[in-house]
């Protein structure tokens, strides 16, 4: 019994944003004393990087009214009123049912949001416009959702349900993403497998996804049971996602047969925790959490504890630090080869990125004379670090690829 409790405590810890910060901070402190294998940290560059991000924020949002960093921003690309159209299509539903549909869309779109690669593009059917990378994946998933590709009910296309996901075929997927020999998409099999696993896992967690016709969007019903005085903790949202979606991630560390998700072994942590020398990031799960908050706010809920979530350990934020010289590779040749997510160079890069994002956010709040509550990290990411990372990547490399090459299976980055 004690063993089981110890496992449960460890699993709960590695699913917490507190664990992300604590473990990443330990690795960051190793960088401060130059004990990392792969990176040097140059603190004298921090102010300049924060200044570059602040310039980006002022340019993108001159009035400083920055929305949350979430998938909903990508649906707005090109200033085309896609979300207004979606709202009209959902208007006959109750407010809770509308929120279920919006959560369905956000969840499916985020799960399909791992890096597309430099070659893939998507031509939007309604406008004929061509989109690439995250925006392309967003518009592709938005159109597939509207066509009912993820729904098993022809009468109601605007849903994602377990049966619809499990019935997905590779040919439907390839067609939906417009993939062909001249338009390759990274990790197509990994993405499809992820959605099929999601379909199965929806049945396994009826308290989260509903007993009858389970859907990811039915998380809203669960969240409504977790509110107090109409307040919902962002950590509650993240924890539910990590519990409910944990089983879908392939090839991950497990504790007592429970999949930990975006959590990795790092030898340098053995000095801190010889039993579980792991570092969690939960990048896609936190990106997903941020993307669920707006529909939940539209439902009238007040989101609290937003400051407990972390930045996103992905290649735009990490690339910003590397391209601007805040981080430096000890072996420059590492930028020429591909790295898997479990490699020590990627784990160090992601860990440092998490802590640096907190430091950038602190500087920006100070310069703007805002409190962290008035200008939370999720706005710094949107304003912000992600755009700045892409901008500097375009300046450094014609294909705007990240400064480190990632071997992605479509489920991490």
From TrEMBL:
Positions of the region Disordered? Answer: 394-413
Look up the domain of life of the source. Answer: Bacteria
Protein name according to UniProt = Uracil phosphoribosyltransferase
The organism named in the record is Planktothrix tepida PCC 9214
């Amino acid at each position: 019994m004690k063993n089981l409790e110890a496992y449960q405590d460890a699993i709960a810890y590695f699913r917490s944003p507190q664990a992300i910060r604590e473990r990443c901070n330990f690795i960051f402190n190793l960088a401060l004393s130059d004990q990392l294998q792969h990176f040097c940290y140059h603190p004298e560059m921090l102010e300049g990087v924060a200044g570059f991000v602040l310039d980006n924020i002022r340019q993108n949002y001159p009035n400083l009214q920055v929305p949350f960093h979430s998938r909903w921003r990508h649906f707005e690309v090109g200033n085309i009123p896609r979300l207004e159209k979606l709202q009209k299509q959902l208007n006959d539903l109750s407010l809770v049912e509308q929120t279920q549909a919006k959560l369905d869309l956000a969840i499916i779109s985020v799960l399909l949001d791992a890096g597309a690669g430099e070659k893939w593009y998507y031509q939007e059917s309604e406008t004929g416009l061509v989109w690439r990378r995250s925006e392309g994946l967003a518009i592709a998933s938005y159109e597939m959702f509207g066509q009912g590709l993820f729904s098993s009910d022809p009468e109601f296309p605007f849903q994602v349900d377990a049966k619809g996901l499990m019935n997905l075929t590779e040919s439907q997927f390839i067609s939906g993403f417009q993939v062909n020999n001249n338009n390759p998409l990274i990790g197509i099999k990994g993405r499809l497998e992820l959605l099929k696993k999601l379909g199965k896992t929806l049945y396994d967690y009826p308290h989260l996804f509903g007993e009858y016709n389970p859907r990811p969007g039915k998380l809203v019903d669960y969240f409504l049971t977790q509110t107090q005085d109409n307040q919902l903790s962002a950590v509650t949202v993240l924890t539910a996602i990590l519990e409910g979606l944990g089983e879908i991630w392939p090839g991950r560390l497990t504790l007592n047969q429970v999949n930990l998700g975006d959590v990795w072994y790092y030898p340098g942590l053995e000095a801190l925790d010889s039993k579980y020398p792991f570092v969690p990031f939960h990048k896609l799960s936190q990106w997903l959490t941020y993307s669920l908050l707006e529909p939940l706010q539209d439902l009238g809920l007040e989101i609290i504890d937003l400051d407990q979530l972390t930045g996103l350990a992905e290649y735009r934020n990490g690339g910003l630090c590397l391209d601007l010289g805040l981080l430096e590779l000890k072996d420059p040749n590492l930028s020429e080869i591909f790295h898997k997510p479990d490699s020590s160079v990627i784990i160090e890069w992601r860990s440092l990125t998490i802590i640096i994002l907190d430091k950038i956010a602190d500087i920006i709040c100070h310069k703007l004379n805002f409190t962290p509550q008035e200008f939370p990290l999720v706005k710094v990411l949107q304003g912000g670090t992600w755009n700045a990372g892409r901008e500097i990547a375009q300046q450094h490399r014609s294909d705007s690829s990240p400064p480190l090459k990632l071997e992605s299976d479509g489920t991490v980055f």
